[in-house]
Amino acid sequence: MSTATTSPSVIAPPTVRRTQLLIDGQWCDSTSGKTFATYHPATEEKIADVALANADDVDRAVKAARRAFESGDWPAMDARDRGRLLNRLADLIEENADELAALETLDNGKPIRDARAADIPLVIDCLRYYAGWADKITGETIPIRGDYFCYSRREPLGVCGQIIPWNFPALMVAWKWGPALAAGCTIVMKPAEQTPLSCLRLAELATEAGFPPGVINIVPGFGETGAAIVRHPDVDKIAFTGSTETAQRIMSDAAQTLKRLTFELGGKSPNIIFGDSDLDAAIEGAEFGLFFNQGQCCCAGSRVFVEQSVHEEFIERVVARAQERRLGNPFDENTTQGPQIDIDQFRKIMHYIDRGKHSKATCVTGGEREGTQGFYVQPTIFDNVTDDMDIATDEIFGPVMSVLPFRDIDEVIERSNKTYYGLAAAVWTKDVAKAHRIANSVKAGTVWINCYDVFDAAAPFGGFKMSGIGRELGGAALANYTEHKTVTMNLNS
Questions:
Q1: Which domains does the chain have, with CATH numbers?
Q2: In the beta sheet, which residues pair with residue 151?
Q3: Quick one: 281 exposed, middle or buried, by C-beta within 10 A (0-12, 13-18, 19+)?
Q4: Can you give the pLDDT at residue 135?
Q5: Does 1 have pLDDT greater than 50?
Q6: Of 264, 307, 370, 395, catalytic
Q7: Is the pTM above the cut of 0.85?
Q8: Is 104 one of the annotated active-site residues of the chain?
Q9: Does the pLDDT value for residue 492 go beyond 80?
Q10: For residue 356, how far is the Cα from the chain centroid?
């Protein structure tokens, strides 16, 4: 699984260009001089040392963002020019797409084929989508009683702290930057400590595109760095993607200053397969919906409910597909599954696999480490899972599928909703009425019908219950980065 191979299907790892902080348009070391290492999860070898931002660095970044928002070129810029900058950034990303895809593979371990086909094209599309929104963020004229003229404005919220995860590093940058920059906000971002490199490279491209100093600031670090952003009194909003437990701490820390908050959090998404579905498509969708990105997706279809009439056939065929997955060097274009992100995530996944094996569920394939180097976990499927098992209730965030048989639609609706998560769901059936009954009854922010993991920058994404607050993407995301102001004028004055 080493990247050192002469196979023609293997591409070379990229050169790491940026490892410092970006504050007020300048690349700089941290005030402490400290760094932290980032590792390639396929080989466990160090890639680079990255500057470690502390509270003083966060304070410098927030002050730079505040200056840019209050008195710099950014607030005075025409909205269409903001849109042009976002389009210019998207163009630069497209010009450097191969490098950025390879950087995702180096830092995250995801297969290069996925980074090329999904991550980077979605980054480009997201930024172009919000470039089109920049000059269309408008208020409305409001008829009220009396001789008054009343209208509303949507104004940029201010300095936004953005904390992103490691599973889709570049794409999470785009999801956060796009609406914030289109609305006219400024940014202090902390990338995940496991995957800072693509964010730093994107920030370099943003500088090249012409974003003014202080509009985008990048402060890599660990939880303490993120906490410093959350607690800073001059940060107006926090946008966080990650675990529900971390969001709870952020909400507590942000209470002192009543910051605006948006969270995109965990999930334990039900993927419901009826006997009348196109079983070929449903099996393909179940495999993709769980194993894509090594199972490291917040919306992974990890609870697969299968109607009893097709349960036996489903198990036989989905196991065959899982066993065909090719684990190996993520820089090999033939690899379909890479390593987990790091040793902590690997150990967590193996812990849950062990819990599943010691339950009454049946491990029908996988369940072991793959190889001796890198954090590889075999594609794992458990059959005969019950709702109360840990593997059915907890977010594992790895390549572990739980299959739960069911009898009828009323039962599966009730069982699907028996979770404190509510991020996504899917249903597979040829019965349109049945499909929409599921879509209307399942408590989830996104429901896919006869498909899975279909994302578009125009379609809002977020969770019910403890899977989040607010929405990413679409016009809905712009509400997270604007304040509504009402203006009323006496026409007789």
A1: 21-265+469-486 (3.40.605.10), 270-458 (3.40.309.10)
A2: 141, 487
A3: middle
A4: 97
A5: no
A6: 264
A7: yes
A8: no
A9: yes
A10: 27
